[in-house]
Amino acid sequence: QIKAFLFDLDGVIVDTAIYHYQAWKRLANELGFDISEEFNERLKGVSRTESLDLILAHGGLTLPDEKKAELAAQKNEWYLELVSRMNSDDILPGVATFFSQVRKAGLQTALGSVSKNAPLILERIGMTQAFDAIIDGTKISKGKPDPEVFTKGADELEVNYNECVVFEDAVAGVEAGKRAGMFVVGLGSADVLIQADLVASSLESLTVAEVLAKLPN
Ligand code: BG6
Ligand code: MG
Q: Rounded distance, CA 37 to CA 52, Å?
């Protein structure tokens, strides 16, 4: 019996994944190298500090912690500039319809994002009230692919892990959901999100009834 749907934010509810990518790319470029879209798949769902570590390793750089803190802060400043103009028009197609179906089905909702900026983004797009529980980067100690962000969401909703469905666009996020013992819907390409139980291109191409019909009995 499914009781709750847990949603990632970046790339699922809003297309902030592109802004994270642009800000990291700008940082890499300033450091003298580049990151591709393909490399960026590895950064999705990964925390700010771990993303920076992956990027520096990619560019063959080793830097002291102080410098790394400075670079992470710089990236966040650029990211905040990019998201500062966001509003409800930036909610991805299909999200509003899908959420009204979720409510009609009597399911609970939680946000499961490792982003420390998640509450700010939810405010900007007017979706704070759409979630019964909000787990963001300030509430967890381990980023995806660790399952913590989703198990905490289930705990806050007081539902069992096998009563949850996770919606994710990131490889690390799909793994986190699977490790939490949840049914995972991947949003994106089936070639990339190979661990997902079900893949759709976005919430626009999916109904709640379709998801519930795919669940194991
Ligand atoms: C995730 C994004 O939601 O949040 C990652 O997919 C990002 O790309 C991570 O690095 C951390 O976000 P923030 O806003 O705390 O830097
Ligand atoms: Mg995401």
A: 16
Which residues line ligand 1 at a C-beta cut-off of 6 Å? Answer: 9-10, 17, 20, 43-48, 51, 76, 113-117, 137, 170
Q: What's the distance, Cα to Cα, between the start and end of the chain in Å?
A: 8
And the tokens for 214?
């795919």
Which residue pairs from 17-20 have beta carbons closer than 8 angstroms and sit at least 24 positions apart in sequence? 17/44, 17/169, 19/79, 19/82, 19/83, 20/44, 20/51, 20/79
Positive or negative torsion for Cα 23, 70, 138, 39: positive
Closest C-alpha to 212, from 90, 93, 53, 102? 102
Per residue in 25-66, pLDDT (tens digit) is 999 999 999 999 999 999 999 999 999 999 999 999 999 999
pTM greater than the 0.80 cutoff: yes
For a substitution probing ligand 1, which of 10, 27, 149 has the most ligand atoms within 8 Å of its CB?
A: 10
